[in-house]
Design a protein that fits this description.
- The structure is a single chain.
- This protein is mainly beta and 316 residues long.
- The protein is 5% helix and 40% strand.
- The protein has helices at 3-12, 144-149, and strands spanning 21-22, 32-33, 78-81, 90-101, 109-120, 155-166, 177-184, 191-197, 204-208, 215-216, 222-226, 229-239, 248-256, 263-264, 271-275, 282-292, 295-304, 310-315.
- Strands 1, 10, 11, 12, 13, 14 and 15 form a 7-stranded antiparallel β-sheet that branches. The protein has a 7-stranded antiparallel β-sheet with strand order 3-4-5-6-7-8-9, with no helix packed on it. Strands 2-18-17-16 form a 4-stranded antiparallel β-sheet, with helices on one face.
- β17 and β18 (310-315) form a beta hairpin.
- The protein is globular and about 60 Å long.
- The N and C termini lie close together (12 Å).
């Protein structure tokens, strides 16, 4: 394990706990709890320990300050850092409810969600540009103030749980950005699947990816290239829900690679690769999976049923 990776583990592993288990039959992408497993290969003189994390005093960095942001909930943010990008060194895609009732007293009802966009030069101060891509006046559920904004907002498209990936390896510039999740064009039906974009703002080639149960789209979906297979992709999604062990993490890989986003086997649900405890008290809600040097890392949100969800770092 490279020293820089060890440093990353020390920084992000502050909340890792014992209790997560590999799913039966899982192999390449099976998760290992750092403090429940001592087989992590570290160089001499480096040890895994609980690090000290200091929150930036400027938090929160993004708040619901627009008429079309009555509640930022299940936002599943995606931040991409590309210093040379003329549209911003840091670019952010995040979900939020643009309409709904009773947000002050509950999780809300009659909720309408959409994919929002922001950019930043330093990753701290964020701008929500008026993009002219989504017409709030056409959403009946929106408030009067939101409707008055019309297209002067930072919304890209309707939908939820969408993961965004900048694909620098695709030779086709029109497919530079990949999306995986639920997307709802204003002039069409909602589609749970994949899409591509030239600039990360306007999305095209929206295609469904429909797996059987227990796969679910109601969490943060993610797709990324597999460095071991230049044209292959790794899809992370959710498996399970109501039956024990409740929510789990599923991963599918491209079986017929293409330069766009790969073709996956949809005849069966993505393989469960990790789960929480056997009683369902600690359920794995969603995970961002990505390659780092010669291993895979997973930032997993754990739903502790008695408290708020927390984030953990897993390695494979």
């Amino acid at each position: 394990m490279a020293p820089i990776l060890a440093a990353a583990l020390l920084l992000h592993a502050a909340t890792a706990q014992q209790g997560f288990t590999n799913a039966p039959g899982s192999t390449k992408y099976a998760a290992i709890s750092l403090f429940a497993n001592t087989t992590v290969d570290l160089p001499a003189g480096i040890a895994v320990t609980i690090g000290t994390v200091t929150k930036d005093p400027r938090n929160p960095l993004l708040i619901q300050d627009k008429p079309w942001e009555p509640r930022l909930d299940n936002s599943y943010p995606n931040v991409i850092h590309t210093p040379s990008d003329s549209m911003g060194a840091y670019r952010l895609w995040y979900g939020g409810f643009i309409a709904g009732n009773h947000f002050n007293t509950s999780q809300g009802s009659m909720r309408v969600s959409a994919l929002h966009y922001a950019n930043s030069s330093d990753g701290i101060v964020w701008s929500k540009p008026a993009l002219g891509l989504f017409d709030l006046a056409k959403v009946p559920e929106c408030s009067t103030a939101a409707k008055a904004a019309g297209t002067q907002n930072n919304i890209l498209i309707g939908g939820s749980g969408t993961g965004i990936f900048r694909d620098g390896d695709d030779v086709n510039a029109s497919r530079r950005f990949k999306a995986f999740g639920t997307l709802c064009p204003q002039d069409g039906d909602c589609v749970s699947g994949v899409a591509t974009s030239t600039d990360g703002l306007t999305w095209n080639d929206i295609k469904p990816v429909t797996w059987p149960a227990p796969q679910r789209y109601d969490c943060h979906q993610n797709v990324v290239r597999d460095p071991a297979n230049g044209n292959g992709f790794v899809y992370t999604t959710r498996d399970g829900f109501s039956k024990l062990p409740g929510r789990t993490i599923g991963i599918a890989t491209a079986t017929t690679p293409t330069a766009a986003y790969g073709e996956v086997d949809v005849t069966k649900a993505p393989a469960e690769v990790e789960r929480g405890d056997s009683k369902g008290a600690h359920q794995l809600y969603a995970q961002v999976t990505f390659p780092f040097y010669n291993i895979w890392l997973g930032l997993v949100a754990v739903n502790h049923l008695s408290v708020c969800p927390r984030s953990h770092l897993l390695t494979s």
